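Lab notebook: predicted structure, single chain.

Context: the supervisor wants predicted structures on file for every construct in the current expression panel, including those that have not yet been purified. This is the next one on the list. No modifications to the sequence; it matches the entry in the shared construct table.
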Amino acid sequence: MSNTYRRIDVETGVNGASPHQLTTLLFNGALDSIAQARGAMLNKQVEVKGAAIGKAIRIIDEGLKASLNLAEGGEVAQNLSDLYAYITLRLTQANLRNDTAALDECVNLLKPVREAWLQIAPTSDAPASTAAMRIQA
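Prediction complete. Output recorded below exactly as produced.
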């Protein structure tokens, strides 16, 4: 039953979110999926690990990386694109090698980008950002 409530909470948060908040949700989802993969890896839950890493890769590739505007974003957008490509490579390697250190590296690369993203939030996003943080929990 709690999964149903959580899904509804997530859907409500997504439907009412600004583009900035949606990106925040993508960062949160990627980090959450990596954490799930780490736990599954430590518990030798191969199927759960693979699904969580696959989800993290999709969030990064189809969400974060795909949303970059390389034409207008200049060097910053290109650097982020390269970073996201590297993270997806490391996630794939982590999956193949059961490498928790690679997962930790991905988290350590994503967290500062997420924190920087939160710092540039428009002031009108402030109340909804709290909701986005609640969704992660």
